[in-house]
Design brief:
Elements: H1 2-28, H2 34-58, H3 69-106, H4 111-117, H5 125-150, H6 153-175
Helix pairs in contact: 1-5, 2-3, 3-5
Length: 181
């Protein structure tokens, strides 16, 4: 039963993040400009680098409990689950950066003339404008989703470090032949 509660909380958080992100992307899309996009690029570039460090911390084999290979294998499932969630967040960061890059490419002056010179006549100014608006909404949607999940990172890092400290304390107790019930 506790597992169902955990997944229920995660599902509710995911659905709430979807709705809030969708709502915010619609509201804030008209306010998106070049400065805001540059700020998002800076933020997500820094967060992506930070997240790579988190992945290294989570995936450190020294965090596996001491004992037999079976104990290590069973606890590795939790490590892989944490790594998968963090990898997904990194993917959202990178996808956001990719959308910003594509948006900036489509925003260059003369892009419409470039399409016409390559006989891509179906790309008109109105089509480019529609693509820009949807790109802006996609960028904002992913940004809000990534931010909502990024707020969980400090708690996750604290939990990992707390487990490591507790593991070290337990290891020292074992060496000193101290048993606590």
């Amino acid at each position: 039963m506790p597992d169902w509660k955990k997944y229920r909380k995660k599902s509710i958080f995911f659905i709430a993040s979807l709705f809030v992100s969708f709502f915010f992307c619609i509201i804030f899309q008209p306010f998106l400009n070049e400065k805001a996009l540059d700020l998002l690029v800076n933020i997500y570039s820094i967060l992506a680098g930070f997240l790579i460090g988190v992945i290294a911390l989570i995936g450190d084999p020294s965090s596996l409990p001491k004992g037999s290979w079976r104990i290590a294998e069973s606890s590795s499932r939790n490590v892989y689950r944490n790594l998968q969630g963090t990898r997904n967040l990194l993917s959202i960061y990178l996808l956001t950066l990719f959308l910003i890059f594509m948006y900036k490419l489509l925003s260059v002056n003369g892009v419409e003339a470039l399409f016409h010179s390559n006989n891509l006549t179906f790309v008109k100014k109105s089509t480019l404008q529609t693509i820009k608006v949807w790109s802006e909404m996609g960028i904002l949607f992913l940004s809000f989703m990534a931010f909502s999940y990024s707020f969980k990172l400090p708690a996750k890092l604290f939990s990992i470090q707390q487990q490591r400290v507790n593991k070290e304390i337990e290891s020292r107790r074992k060496k000193a032949n101290i048993k606590i019930n």
